[in-house]
Specification:
This protein is of the alpha+beta class. The chain folds into three domains: 32 residues; 370 residues, 3-Layer(aba) Sandwich (Beta-lactamase), CATH 3.40.710; 197 residues, Penicillin binding protein transpeptidase fold. The chain is built from 25 helices and 19 strands. The strands form seven sheets. The chain has a five-stranded antiparallel β-sheet, with helices on both faces. It is elongated, with a radius of gyration of 35 Å.
Length: 686
């Protein structure tokens, strides 16, 4: 027993000494940190949080939702309701701590350790202010340590009221509003000292997540958070029960910004820029919008204006049909213009990037690219007639052509693409095996659900317009290195480069490159949708707009019961247009199917007006030859129609179309030699 007591006392003394040593070391470290913080002097309270977007020519893009709205008011001018609501939900021990809430930190550390990642924060108002002034919003331990150090410096050199005043004047409330005064004017069109308790508590809940808690973005989430704030204020005795109940039930009247939004430059494009920047910097939208970044984009303001003008001219206010359009540089994938709908103020839903719709025949160029890589040529002949295909488990699939028109004879691939013959497409997909088309689509960057079935040849997969135009740009350029993007460079407000666009090589030994010869052959065949020489049992699909075009274009339309597509290109730019109804109702009017083509033609003609005429340049392995579209043989003097196609020298036909007539004469002569009936006529005459 005595030995046990001695050993216990020995270890206790050692423990006390170790604890004392640790305490002394800790005190020295803390004093050292404080001394270092003091020697650095007071940190600057100046802030530069406005994120600016620049268009391709370097000019600043006028923002619809990006921080330009900022007012500074003193804490004495701020209503008590705003201060109390903010303290209640963000940091109710603000006036009693030294920049850190130890209790909240302990709870957050335990939660983070359990999850083995940063999932819960315990930042005080001082820490949040420090982060907004000097740091990024990334969730890392390094950033938290820096945040703590800046918070110490703020607490040493500034009064609590100064810190709270700075915080409330710089915190981001979404929609481009920084600070409580800006937020009050944006949401309620009044000065902050006029806010009611209900309005103040609604605003106090927004900074935690502006895109989630803004009443203009999600009123249900905003009201739930507002009620939580009022309950918290009531618990802390800031307000009475009756005041809480009155504020919860009060009706709020938000300011209508529709006229201001209508003046914004490329609002759908700017939304995509924010989303792309968030992905590139691995952060959220709020951090991008409030981070003081300089984002250099690919926007061509002239292209954007011409696209919007075309939309305005084409659509009248009576129709409810919606649209989406995007213009992209063929060589780089840079997006030069984008419209995600007819009216951003009425619906900010971006139908270019967010909507996935059945693409119809717009998928056929990728099918025929697959075919060219599997021993087909632009002159391969298949029958165009009503056909039923047996698919899995004995089921029968019977596709049909538009309006049930058929050639009832063999036609070439070049003509099948120009006329958008469905039978030819399905027959090709079945002959190749649908898995090969799926593989091709994956090679061109398409993901999502791509069912390997015969009907995939007719575009039964749902794909976004953004991805379709991206795929076309790769086909036209013949390179997987072309990738859609809206951003060329991102810097912080001190001009430190955080990101710069560089084409990523996707063509290595593990990722087969695009076959440039097959890609160019398809690109050139797609110019046929505007060429009447390819008219057959029906007109080429671009005939309705061919007279509006003044230069060489290629393209492909796509039609389903619910969607209308037009994706077309010049040697410089590719543009895609979709029209349809958001509620997926059927398109019943022929005029509604024409919108996409008209918008495309109008926009592309305006965009190319100042540009020099240019041509598609074939790769060395292909040769251009004129063929007779009906027979698929070489054109000659006696052929009524001819069409230029590009193909491998080995695949060029040897016969000309008039060769059929010559062979008939030769056969008659042979018959005469075998049965010289003319001799009997001569004998009779004599």
């Amino acid at each position: 027993m005595l030995l046990f007591i001695r050993l216990t006392w020995k270890w206790l003394r050692r423990g006390f000494k170790a604890a004392a040593a640790c305490g002394i070391v800790g005190i020295i470290v803390v004093l050292g940190i404080l001394a270092y913080a003091i020697t650095l002097g007071p940190p600057s309270l100046s802030t530069s949080q406005n994120t600016l977007f620049y268009q391709a020519d370097g000019g600043v893009i006028e923002g619809h939702d990006v921080g330009e709205d900022r007012y500074w008011i003193s804490i004495d001018e701020m209503p008590e309701e705003v201060i109390n609501a903010t303290l209640a939900i963000e940091d109710h021990r603000f006036y009693s701590h030294f920049g850190f809430d130890i209790k909240r930190i302990g709870s957050a550390v335990l939660t983070d350790l359990k999850a083995m990642e940063m999932v819960e924060g315990a930042s005080t108002i001082t820490q949040q202010y420090a982060r907004n002034l000097y740091l990024t919003h990334e969730k890392t331990w390094t950033r938290k340590i820096k945040e703590a150090f800046f918070a110490i410096r703020l607490e040493i050199f500034y009064e609590k009221d100064e810190i709270l005043e700075g915080y409330l004047n710089t915190i981001y409330y979404g929609h481009g509003a920084y600070g409580i005064e800006s937020a009050s004017r944006y949401f309620f069109n009044k000065n902050s000292d006029e806010l009611t308790l209900s309005e103040a508590t609604m605003l106090a809940g927004i900074p935690k997540g502006p895109s989630y808690y803004s009443p203009l973005a999600d009123e249900d989430n905003a009201e739930t958070r507002q009620e939580r704030i009022l309950t918290r204020m009531n618990d802390l005795k800031y307000i009475t029960n009756s005041e809480k109940n009155e504020a919860v039930t009060a009706s709020l009247d938000y300011y209508d910004h529709s006229e201001e939004n209508a003046k914004a430059v490329a609002p759908f494009f700017q939304d995509e820029v924010v989303n792309e920047a968030a992905r590139l910097l691995d952060t959220d939208r709020e951090s991008i919008e409030s981070g003081g970044f300089r984002i250099y984009t690919t926007l061509n303001e002239e292209h954007q204006a011409k696209l919007e003008r075309a939309l305005t001219e084409e659509f009248n206010q009576e129709t409810e049909i919606e649209t989406a359009a995007v213009v992209m540089d063929n060589d780089t994938g840079a997006v030069t213009a984008m419209a995600g709908g007819r009216d951003y103020a009425k619906s900010p839903f971006n139908r270019v990037t967010q909507a996935k719709r059945m693409v119809g025949s717009a998928i056929k160029p990728f099918l025929y690219y697959t075919a060219l890589k599997n021993n087909y040529t632009p002159l391969t002949m298949l029958e165009s007639k009503p056909t039923s295909f047996e698919i899995e488990e004995g089921k029968i699939y019977s596709p049909s052509n538009y309006n049930n028109y058929y050639a009832d004879q063999e036609i070439t691939m070049a003509q099948a693409l120009a006329l958008s013959d469905n039978i030819y497409a399905v027959q090709t997909n079945v002959d190749l095996g649908p898995e090969k088309l799926v593989d091709t689509l994956r090679e061109f960057g398409f993901d999502g659900n791509l069912p390997a079935v015969p009907s995939l040849a007719l575009g039964t997969a749902s794909i976004s317009l953004y991805d379709m135009v991206d795929g076309y740009s790769r086909l036209i350029s013949g390179s997987k290195n072309v990738q859609k993007h809206t951003i060329t460079k991102i810097t912080d407000h001190r001009d430190h480069t955080l990101y710069e666009y560089e084409p990523v090589s996707n063509e290595d030994k593990d990722n087969k490159p695009i076959d440039k010869e097959a890609a160019f052959s398809i690109t050139q065949m797609m110019t046929g949708i505007f060429d009447p020489a390819l008219n057959g049992y029906t007109s080429v699909t671009g005939s309705s707009i061919a007279d509006e075009l003044t230069r060489m274009y290629g393209g492909k339309s796509g039609t389903t019961d619910f969607d209308s597509w037009m994706i077309g290109f010049s040697p410089q730019y590719v543009m895609g247009v979709w029209t349809g109804y958001d509620d997926n109702r059927k398109i019943t009017k022929a005029r509604d199917h024409q919108y996409s083509k008209e918008v495309w033609a109008n926009s592309m003609e305006q965009i190319h007006e100042p540009l020099a005429i240019s041509a598609f340049t074939p790769p060395p392995g292909l040769k251009g030859v004129y063929i007779n579209p009906a027979s698929g043989k070489l054109s000659g003097p006696a052929c009524p129609k001819e069409r230029l196609v590009y193909m491998s020298k080995d695949d060029i036909p040897k016969e000309t179309c008039e060769g059929e007539e010559d062979s008939d004469i030769e056969e008659i002569e042979k018959e005469l030699q075998e049965d010289p009936w003319y001799k009997s006529v001569v004998d009779w005459f004599w």
